[in-house]
Amino acid sequence: MLKIFGAPCRYIQGAGALDTLGQYAALFGQRAALVIDRYVHGVLGSRIESLCAEHNVALTPLIVDGDLTPELIAELRAQAAPASIDMVIAVGGGKSLDAGKAVAKSSHCHLITVPTVASNDAPTSKNYVLYDAHHNLLAVEHMLFNPTIVLVDTAIIATAPVHFFRAGLGDAVSKKFEAEQCQRNGGKNMYDGAPLLSAQLIADGCLRTLLADGVDAVAAAGTGEPTPAFERVVEAMILMSGLGFESGGLSIAHALTRGLPKIGGVGTALHGLQVAVGLLVQLDLEQRNDGMLADLTQWYAQVGLPTTLRELGAADMPSDADLTLAAELTLKARHAANFDRVLDVAQLTEALRRHA
């Protein structure tokens, strides 16, 4: 199996980075689809339009409302078609960025992602997730290549509520451990290739940065004032985490996001918060003796991450039926095979019960 590493063409981060949007967009043409949710459009829409107009780039706004369903994607693609766009500019949270990926894929054009929160590593990846009308996950789709440009304005991200920032921590902290399991057990990464050493080293650096600066970064989240620690952690959560998972691979922590939503009260928890609890379950199943599970549990308390299903939103002790269903769905996920041993439903159910 060939080893494959993938990444965005260019990553730009810092306070005021949004001001460069027009000059980068102009590299690809004069017509762009702006994929953006209604709230962010109200806050940033006129500024983005002005920045692009300064460089003779005209925008066709495509407003994202509701879940990212196949029907919504078809509607957005239909709106984009008459505009003969040269590029897609996707601005907002994960839903808007994923919608932008779907439009860019169908239009065979460049994609610029502009995250307004750091709740996950979607800005750098080629993956996007589709749901049905009942918010059940339908499929994970892929662009042929990663976004061309990722533009991360930390002054904007620092205004987002701390709850989203914590979710980003939870999504990123798992990547070292999942990449290890994938590599050690012959798994494939998101490019259907073998993981490279480079991806593991990046995932290792991601974890080190989160543990060193996570507490200070959380203190800055929501203030609108990015600090050096905040900048480092945003880079870890978006760039290092994204490269680590796509080129390094995933394992149990992310596979659990297929099953955890079936536990009553957990389905509405942000993806990264589910991953955070999923990582503790994975480390439990690894039967580690290096103290990492205890160390991470302590760090979770310091940054405000959930450690149990009840902290994720489960109202009571989940039923045996709910836990079993969650385990069954998790083990059907592709990433669940990237583990030191073959798990059965009973083993995973018991591990979930220990973290209820």
Automatic annotation (TrEMBL):
Q: How is the cofactor bound?
A: Binds 1 zinc ion per subunit.
Superkingdom as given in the UniProt entry: Bacteria
Pfam families reported in the protein's UniProt record: Fe-ADH
Needed co-factor(s): Zn(2+)
Look up the record and name the pathway of this protein: Polyol metabolism; glycerol fermentation; glycerone phosphate from glycerol (oxidative route): step 1/2
Select a single GO molecular function from the record's annotations and give it: metal ion binding
Q: Cite the entry's keywords alphabetically.
A: Metal-binding, NAD, Oxidoreductase, Zinc
Record InterPro entries: ADH_Fe/GldA, Glycerol_DH
Signal sequence region: none
Reaction(s) catalysed by this chain, per the record, are: glycerol + NAD(+) = dihydroxyacetone + NADH + H(+)
Q: For binding NAD(+), which residues are annotated in this chain's numbering?
A: D37, G94, K95, S96, L97, D98, T116, V117, A118, S119, S125, Y131
EC number per UniProt? 1.1.1.6
Keyword check for NAD: yes
Q: Which residues bind glycerol?
A: D121, D171, H254, H271
The answer to whether keyword Oxidoreductase applies is yes
Q: Which residues form the Alcohol dehydrogenase iron-type/glycerol dehydrogenase GldA domain?
A: 8-154
Please name the PANTHER family in this protein's record.
GLYCEROL DEHYDROGENASE (PTHR43616), GLYCEROL DEHYDROGENASE 1 (PTHR43616:SF5)
User: What name goes with this protein?
Assistant: Glycerol dehydrogenase
Q: Lineage of the source organism?
A: Bacteria, Pseudomonadati, Pseudomonadota, Betaproteobacteria, Burkholderiales
